Amino acid sequence: MPVFDHLAQLPDDPILGLVALYANDTRASKMDLGVGIYKDPQGRTPVLKSVKAAEAWLLENESSKAYVSTAGVPGFENAIVPIALGASAASLVGERYAAIQTPGGTGGLRLMAEFLTRTAVKTVLVGVPTWPIHQPIFERVGLNVSTCAHLREDGTFNLEALLAGISELNTGDAVLLHACCHNPTGIDPTREQWHAILDAVKAKGVLPLFDMAYQGFGDGLDEDAWSLRLFCDALPEVLASVSCSKNFGIYRERTGALLISSDSTKTLAAVRSQVIDSARSLWSMPPSHGGQIVTHILGDGALKASWLAELNEMCERINSLRNGLCDALKAIDAFEPFQSLAVQKGMFSSLGMTPEYVLRIRETSGVYLVGSGRINVSGLSADRLDELAAALKAGLV
Ligand code: LMR
């Protein structure tokens, strides 16, 4: 008896589906502001020079393709912890912090969810809108997801909704937080608001889960991890998924980590072993190429400096494009409906428009945005900002 008969064909993924739609659009004037991939001024996503150098080194020096380990390539854990948690964390690997290499940040989140099924966590609170894959990742392992509004109507961060959501959780539940560069809105809490969130998390006794996919694209590599460090310093337990996809530009190499922070060395070792056990039945071990690239770059002073310069260049280009778009909108008297752009950070900005608006500007102007108007700011081109501003304005009517 066929067992697949009842399965319906699903629509395309809301983000990845746009890639195909864009590719099939024959208009020369089209603009791809969809999937979260950094684009240079020529609209390309080149391999970083530091990554190329690490790959050249690997080609010469990699002597085996034997299995690595479920925890990842040797040295990766010691290399990634101080990037996410600061230089002072380097000496605390194995005592206070651990990191398991994962297939990208999505793998980090999936492993986090899988591990949570071994704990007392029943519900994960998620601010919406969020990356559309967050909710299914937790729901598919049987966890409940509760939601609260990430933004107020005026486009500012909705602290009250998050605090109310946390107060409605049961002690021992969890809350998912974007460490920086919120996807899709580009609106992060201020430092003062992060302190209020920390107080609420402490008071209720809930587990904070961080997603840090865009470290280095907001205020800088160290500054962007400030919220994560605040929570790790103040709380007994924190989990975080970190991604190397964007800041190393190694998207397809699927490289990330699940970070574990615990104030008990014994608990840290126990959790690390449980997480490894979960990973073993999910993917056995992560792909090694990206992990080796990251480990090699971070272990070589000159290469690390060159990577940091390249990351900084990407971040500065995004900031200057966002400012340029604000200026272009101001010049045609259309800034007011889009004024949140001025305070948004990271690869994304959200226009907070309707799906109908997004469809309209795609059809009339060939501008491709995600969901309710998420822009991949790096997809803008400096000499087409006026054109984009005009298309955004025209879509309003
Ligand atoms: C995005 O949000 O565009 C990226 O994280 C890519 C993805 O996997 O959705």
From TrEMBL:
Q: Looking at the UniProt record for this protein, which Gene Ontology cellular component terms does it annotate, in alphabetical order?
A: cytosol
What are the entry keywords? Aminotransferase, Pyridoxal phosphate, Transferase
Its transmembrane ranges are none
Q: Which GO terms describe its biological process?
A: L-phenylalanine biosynthetic process from chorismate via phenylpyruvate
Any single GO molecular-function term of the entry would be: identical protein binding
In its keyword annotation, does this UniProt entry include Membrane? no
Q: Which residues form the Aminotransferase class I/classII large domain?
A: 29-392
Write down the InterPro entries for this protein, in alphabetical order.
Answer: Aminotransferase_I/II_large, Asp_trans, PyrdxlP-dep_Trfase, PyrdxlP-dep_Trfase_major, PyrdxlP-dep_Trfase_small
What cofactor does its activity depend on?
A: pyridoxal 5'-phosphate
- Presence of keyword Cytoplasm: no
What is the protein's quaternary organization? Answer: Homodimer.
Membership in a protein family: Belongs to the class-I pyridoxal-phosphate-dependent aminotransferase family.
The protein's name: Aromatic-amino-acid aminotransferase
Species of origin reads Pseudomonas matsuisoli
